[in-house]
């Protein structure tokens, strides 16, 4: 019984220490993406999305994040390299990620993102439009450069969607703040 009390006491102290280290952070970024359907004929578009992440650091090397993306611009669709009258836009996107990370020094942090994202893509031409929503495994790698203990610049390469030959990938460039 004494061993059990000691074990529970040690677990409570460790849990309290972990909670004290945990931090909430937010990131806002711009993401010029490439939408590409590799099936023949090859379709390609380059819309821009404004992205936001809200994260909670479980410990110094792992965080969980919620993600929201909103379409900032539409893009012309090319078909086998030739321009078409069709426009593509990512209306919205949302997801959840696990973020393993490591501090290289006091200013530089490297990270990965593994999770799931769901996106709604809208295609329009000649006053007509169609949209479709779907989700897939999403991932990315990147880094943060800390300007001070709370504020940092962030850059990552993300794959927000990859399924049935259709991919949405690109850079995510922004700024973050820890509370």
List the helices and strands and how they pair.
Layout: H1 2-21, E1 24-37, E2 43-45, E3 48-59, E4 62-73, E5 75-79, E6 82-103, E7 108-125, E8 128-146, E9 151-163, E10 166-178
Summarize the structure.
With 179 residues, this protein is mainly β. It has 1 helix and 10 strands. The protein has one helix at residues 2-21, and strands at residues 24-37, 43-45, 48-59, 62-73, 75-79, 82-103, 108-125, 128-146, 151-163, 166-178.
Radius of gyration: 20 Å
Could you say which structural class the secondary elements and strand pairing correspond to?
A: mainly beta
Distance between the termini: 41 Å
How many domains make up the coordinates? 1
Strand and helix order: HEEEEEEEEEE
Shape: elongated
Content of β-strand: over 45%
Q: Would you report the number of β strands?
A: 10
Characterize the largest beta sheet: strand count, sense, and whether it forms a barrel. 10 strands, antiparallel
CATH topology: Porin
CATH class: Mainly Beta
Subunit organisation of the chains:
single chain
Number of helices: 1
Description:
The structure is a single chain. The chain has one helix and ten strands. Strands 1, 2, 3, 4, 5, 6, 7, 8, 9 and 10 form a ten-stranded antiparallel sheet that branches. The radius of gyration is 20 Å and the shape is elongated. The model has no long low-confidence stretch (mean pLDDT 87). It is mainly beta and 179 residues long. The protein has a single domain, classed as Porin (Beta Barrel), CATH 2.40.160.20.
